[in-house]
Design a protein that fits this description.
Protein name: DUF5955 family protein
InterPro entries: DUF5955 (IPR045999)
Pfam families: DUF5955
Strand content: under 5%
């Protein structure tokens, strides 16, 4: 959980420092806030974590300056459990 909290906080800081505006910034900020709340829980809801990660990825995926932070966030979520099989 410490890795998740750290990755969420880092990406939130990077997003706040990113001066360029983009259309889905609000969605990314809301999804990161949800992730922060889930990371603070004793037993996080893994499916909700993954949904929020997908929202963040969709919202900032084309912003290359945030790519490394997004990768670290994905890796932190992956540590909590495997991706569901489709």
């Amino acid at each position: 959980m410490a890795e998740l909290r750290s990755a969420v906080a880092r990406l939130r800081r990077q997003l706040a420092a990113h001066r360029a505006d983009f259309r889905d910034r609000g969605i990314a900020e809301e999804a990161l806030a949800t992730l922060a709340g889930l990371a603070a829980a004793d037993r996080p809801d893994i499916p909700m974590l993954r949904r929020s990660l997908l929202l963040v990825a969709g919202a900032i995926g084309s912003v290359s300056a945030l790519g490394e932070g997004l990768r670290q966030l994905r890796e932190a979520v992956d540590l909590l459990g495997p991706s569901p099989k489709v």
